[in-house]
Amino acid sequence: MDTSYPREDYLPAPAHKRQPSAAAPGSPMPRDHLIWSIFNTIYMNFCCLGFVALAFSVKARDRKVAGDVEAARQLSSKARCYNALATAGSVVLPLLLAALVVTGVIHLSKLAQESAGFFAYQFSGTDEEDK
């Protein structure tokens, strides 16, 4: 088992095997989602998923610059997945929390109205019942 550093999933291809246009002719280069990753890291870093997405985005950009299109595509896919998870977690969880607060307030207001009616005394206008 080789434990030497750097431990990378995708080691760079030798210079003589690299081809900048390894993808099919006319197919676009993979996107690295760097801006989305920076946004998730700074503003919505839910469980550090934004930082993980940023790391994969930087790796994807490095692989794209080095000419390893297939590795860049795989790293870009991981970055997109982590960005989607970070965005969904940062948007869905506050909405869920707000929904729970609203339903709790509604439930407590109904409970308060019912208990107010239970504890209220109703006085009758006749004096015959008091005798």
TrEMBL record:
<feature type="compositionally biased region" description="Basic and acidic residues">
    <location>
        <begin position="1"/>
        <end position="10"/>
    </location>
</feature>
<keyword id="KW-0472">Membrane</keyword>
<keyword id="KW-1133">Transmembrane helix</keyword>
<dbReference type="GO" id="GO:0030282">
    <property type="term" value="P:bone mineralization"/>
</dbReference>
<keyword id="KW-0812">Transmembrane</keyword>
<feature type="transmembrane region" description="Helical">
    <location>
        <begin position="82"/>
        <end position="106"/>
    </location>
</feature>
<dbReference type="Pfam" id="PF04505">
    <property type="entry name" value="CD225"/>
</dbReference>
<dbReference type="InterPro" id="IPR051517">
    <property type="entry name" value="IFITM_antiviral_protein"/>
</dbReference>
<dbReference type="InterPro" id="IPR007593">
    <property type="entry name" value="CD225/Dispanin_fam"/>
</dbReference>
<dbReference type="GO" id="GO:0060349">
    <property type="term" value="P:bone morphogenesis"/>
</dbReference>
<feature type="region of interest" description="Disordered">
    <location>
        <begin position="1"/>
        <end position="27"/>
    </location>
</feature>
<feature type="transmembrane region" description="Helical">
    <location>
        <begin position="34"/>
        <end position="56"/>
    </location>
</feature>
<dbReference type="GO" id="GO:0005886">
    <property type="term" value="C:plasma membrane"/>
</dbReference>
<protein>
    <submittedName>
        <fullName>IFM5 protein</fullName>
    </submittedName>
</protein>
<comment type="similarity">
    <text>Belongs to the CD225/Dispanin family.</text>
</comment>
